[in-house]
Structures are given as structure tokens and as C-alpha cells.
Write the C-alpha cells for this entry.
Amino acid sequence: MGRPPDPARKAELLDAAVDYVFRHGLAGLSLRPLASALETSSRMLVYHFGGKEELISQIVQAVRARFQGMLDELAPRRGDRLAVLDTAWRLMSAPEAAPFFRFFFEVYGLALREPVRYQGFLEHVVADWLRVLGGDAQATALVALVRGLLLDLVSTGDRARVEAAYRWARSSLAANREP
């Protein structure tokens, strides 16, 4: 009987795999180049993760866990949606968040194409946001606003234009705020 996988080594490999897919994408992920970049073997990745599909699933889960950290920063402002919106925008539009959102939109597209394979992602992609903002039509519109602007930002890189669009939307929301 073989030695059981080392949980610390598995966590280390998973963290490095997340960083790898942030740089290289998920759609064309191949175990050999990933293993080489992680200075291990594809056999060791299979040993720790059981196969490519399980590795992909765990990468998506690990990224969601990182995202939960961002959402948790919004929770204390839950009663004031504009404060939540401002904090969300500041955190999510920061240049260092760009690799995360490139990955996010890539997985979103893959999940829409293959919903069974990415069922966990689809189950949480809206629910996680609405947990912080509330589940009404206004919350849905705020999620759509932030996601749309983030998609524009990561695809065009035109920070000045996208920031101006955010400020315009924010001021419009503030002007129409109910007392």
C-alpha cells in the first residue's frame, strides 16, 4: 500500500496551480506543462488530485475561496449598498485583481458551455454576490454593473474610460437613492 498524499504538499501545489492558471488560463490546461512549471511531474499531480478533472475542480474551488475573502470585506457595509458598491469596485478593479477576473470570466464562459462540468461554479457565481447585497432587483443590477465594468476593464485595459463610467453610474445611483 502506497503512502497517502501529504496535505501540505497538496495545498502548496494547488496554490501554485491557481497562480499558473491566472497567468496561462484554464481552457487549454495540460498536466505536463503545469507540472513542469510547478517543478513536479504530471504523475505527482495525478497522485495528489486524482486526475485533471479533479484538479480543475479544486482550482475553481480555491479561486472561489480567494474571492470569498474579497466578499467578506464587503459584508460589514451590507446595509449601505453604495458603500458596498464603492468597496467592491475599489477591490475588484485594482490592477492586482486583473488576473483573478480574467480567470473568472474565462471560467464563466466555460461553465455556460459545459454546465455539468462547472456546476459548482454556476451554483455560486450569482449567489455569492447576492448573499452580500441582498437578493432583490437592485442587487442584481449592481452585480451586473460591476461585472460589466470589470469585463470591459480586463478586456480593453482602458482604465480611465471604465473608471469614468463607474463614477457616472455611481453618481446616478446616489442621485436616485431613496431616503
